[in-house]
Design brief:
This is Helix-turn-helix domain-containing protein. With 237 residues, the chain is mainly α. Helix content is 61%, strand content 6%. The protein has 8 helices and 4 strands, in the order αααββααααββα. It has a two-stranded antiparallel sheet with strand order 1-2. Strands 3-4 form a two-stranded antiparallel sheet. A hairpin with a 2-residue loop joins β3 and β4. The N and C termini lie far apart (120 Å).
């Protein structure tokens, strides 16, 4: 019988639980020869062809770091967390790109929210300035329109506050909050009207127009500071 076939038979009998004495009796070879074969089989590790040497693993600098069977953790170590930690590491590596993707998506949404709010804010101020400084009809109609405009300011404040919750900023600390708050207060006073050649016009309308023109181009997300533009004082009219 060839040596390879004999080694295979010894390996099979060893895996079946036979002792070295029993294997020697079955195969007809000496106990010392069986012992050497069994040791060689055990040293080669599971899954290695009988009679072959285990692969040598090179370290980081090309030096021998032991055999492949020693470098790879045995499956039995899973109970101590070896394989589980590898799985957790793989899951964490897969999760990181997803988190980065979500962060980019959220940042994009916040940018869209901010752009939309900024554009509608400027349009709103422009239409309000035009409305308040243009000639109106009767005084009763004018005050009715001013009251309607005040409601629109209030609605805009609520909408801006909701949108800013997605912008990750505190609405109350924004420059926009100051401007709309002052405008809301101004319209709530039912400002006086004056007669002109073409009809009724807001008293101190020029001052109001200058104020809105001054704040229109400013970034609505600028935080409030001490040197804010002063809103017209209604008591001085």
């Amino acid at each position: 019988m060839k040596k390879e076939d004999l080694q295979a038979q010894v390996q099979q009998l060893n895996e079946q639980g036979h002792s070295i004495r029993e294997i020697a009796k079955i195969t007809g070879i000496s106990k010392s020869s069986v012992g050497r074969m069994v040791k060689e089989i055990q040293d080669s590790g599971p899954g290695t062809a009988p009679g072959t040497r285990p692969a040598t693993v090179l370290g980081s600098h090309g030096t021998s770091a032991g055999t492949a069977s020693a470098a790879v953790p045995a499956a039995g170590r899973d109970a101590s967390g070896t394989l589980e930690s590898i799985k957790k590491g793989a899951d964490a590596s897969a999760e990181q790109p997803r988190q980065q993707e979500n962060s980019v998506f959220e940042a994009l949404l916040r940018g869209q929210y901010k752009y939309s709010l900024h554009s509608s804010y400027q349009d709103f101020l422009y239409s309000t300035r035009t409305f308040l400084t243009n000639n109106l009809g009767s005084e009763e109609l004018a005050h009715s329109l001013i009251k309607s405009r005040q409601q629109r300011v209030g609605d805009f404040i609520l909408r801006a506050r909701n949108i800013c919750s997605n912008c990750q900023v505190r609405y109350e600390k924004l420059f926009m909050a100051y401007v709309l708050g002052e405008l809301h207060y101004f319209l709530g006073q039912q400002p006086e009207l004056e007669q002109t050649e073409r009809g009724l016009k807001l008293k101190a309308g020029v001052v109001l127009e200058q104020f809105i023109k001054q704040v229109e181009p400013m970034d609505i997300f600028t935080h409030m500071e001490d040197d804010l533009p002063t809103f017209p004082d209604t008591e001085a009219w």
